[in-house]
Design goal:
single chain; 432 residues; mainly alpha; Na+/H+ antiporter like fold; transport; cell membrane; transmembrane helix; sodium; transmembrane
Length: 432
């Protein structure tokens, strides 16, 4: 299908879903579009079963879109940059120890526990899934999705300190998950379980090789984003023109993404570092921007538009996921596993950190229930090495993500309101 026709169809469906949500469902945009997209997809599948040509064409269009490329090489860097711009850099720096602890330690604990639990669950169903593939599933489902989490926080009115902690962890832990996924995918490939993997740049599988790969990906991404962000800030400070300022920051995100791919460093972490640095420096020197209000409005609008498009396409991807009764049941059971493992991976580090940091009421509960999974997990699932287990983990991931966005996303607001009330009227029993 020509690119123009493909873009017209996808944007048209997204606009229709957004309109129907705003007119009838009136849910938060990402949730409403996801629900509407799922209903639309189920209707399309029904029409395909009836042999309707239009429905068959829609399915072919959905299959022609490489969802992982759309996420990692398309919208993700823009969304992370916009999200990082909105985070209070000073508050994040004050919480740097707990943020990094949760981003690193919690993700590592979650990958190990989720991998082991998945290995046990699949073998209980008589499936001889290799342990490395179960750990691969643990790596793609463990990191909370920054896009989904930041969208939730903007709607939920979470107390500022909790918001900074949850947002900071989510902005950084995806880098850990993606690196772990790349390493495990390389192990699966080396073991003969798959032909290729997502990163396209596998590490030496020795302890030293994996360590160097992590340093290159994570620290290299942060360094690239910091250097590029500083250069962009110096350009912003030298002009007083809103259009030029927008162009400079758009170029910053695109260049960071392209250079990160060429240098094999983390593009998401580069976008986060650039956004945090530009936000911090322009906060300290407001005169660097001709109009901070217009600048923030542009990036907020960009964030909203891309966010809606991402969740619409995420919902439409259900037409390319091959469900069976067994894989669907495993997906439902995986929801419970993910929540239990998330609770353990949050409670263990927070118990240690509580000796040095006082967490506001409901912090742990919000981190557990508000740790949404989203498009990044699905995008990684699409890049699992080809083989008999790829469809299984794609279905399990999709079921967990839909539950996370719809059920957790709709209910976390009530928990956030309780957290806000508890902060105004502290109760020692609510400190978790």
């Amino acid at each position: 299908m020509p690119l123009l026709n493909l873009a017209a169809m996808l944007v048209g469906v997204t606009a229709l879903l957004a309109f129907l949500n705003a007119r009838y469902l009136r849910l938060p945009a990402s949730i409403g579009v996801t629900v509407g997209g799922l209903l639309f997809s189920l209707l399309i599948l029904l029409l395909v079963g009836l042999g309707v040509p239009f429905a068959v064409d829609v399915v072919e269009v959905a299959r022609s879109v490489k969802f992982s490329d759309f996420v990692f090489e398309g919208v993700l860097s823009f969304l992370l940059f916009a999200g990082a711009l909105g985070v209070n850099s000073h508050a994040l720096w004050a919480l740097r120890a707990p943020v990094l602890t949760f981003a690193l330690l919690s993700t590592a604990i979650s990958i190990a526990l989720m991998g082991g639990a998945t290995y046990g669950l699949t073998h209980l169903f008589g499936l001889d899934v290799p342990l490395v593939f179960c750990l691969l599933f643990g790596a793609l489902i463990s990191p909370t999705d920054p896009v989904a989490v930041l969208g939730m926080l903007s709607q939920a009115k979470v107390p500022r300190r909790i918001e900074t902690l949850v947002a900071g962890e989510s902005l950084f832990n995806d880098g850990v998950g993606v690196v772990a996924f790349a390493v495990l995918a390389a192990v699966a490939t080396a073991s003969g379980h798959g032909a290729e993997h997502a990163a396209g740049h596998g590490p030496d599988l020795s302890v030293l090789g994996v360590s160097l790969f992590f340093v290159q990906e994570a620290l290299g991404g942060l360094l690239l984003g910091s250097v590029a962000g500083l250069g962009a800030y110096l350009m912003l400070r030298a002009v007083n023109d809103f259009v030029v300022e927008v162009l400079v920051t758009l170029a910053l995100v695109l260049i960071c993404t392209a250079v990160a791919g060429a240098l094999h460093v983390s593009a998401p972490l580069a976008a986060v570092a650039a956004g945090l640095l530009v936000g911090l420096l322009t906060d300290r020197r407001p005169a660097a921007l001709s109009s901070r209000e217009k600048f923030d409005s542009f990036w907020h609008l960009t964030d909203e538009l891309l966010n809606i498009a991402l969740f619409a396409l995420l919902a439409l991807e259900v037409v390319v996921v091959r469900f069976t009764p067994q894989t669907a049941l495993l997906g439902v059971l995986a929801i419970a596993l993910v929540l239990v493992v998330r609770a353990v991976s949050v409670l263990l580090p927070s118990t240690v950190l509580a000796r040095a940091y006082e967490f506001p009421p409901f912090t742990r509960r919000l981190m557990i229930w508000g740790g949404l999974r989203g498009a990044i997990s699905v995008a990684l699932a699409f890049t699992v090495p080809e083989g008999e287990w790829r469809d299984l983990f794609l279905v399990m991931t999709y079921v967990v993500v839909v539950f996370s966005i719809v059920v957790q996303g709709l209910t976390v607001g009530g928990l956030a309101r309780q957290a806000a009330a508890a902060q105004q009227h502290p109760d020692p029993a609510s400190l978790n």
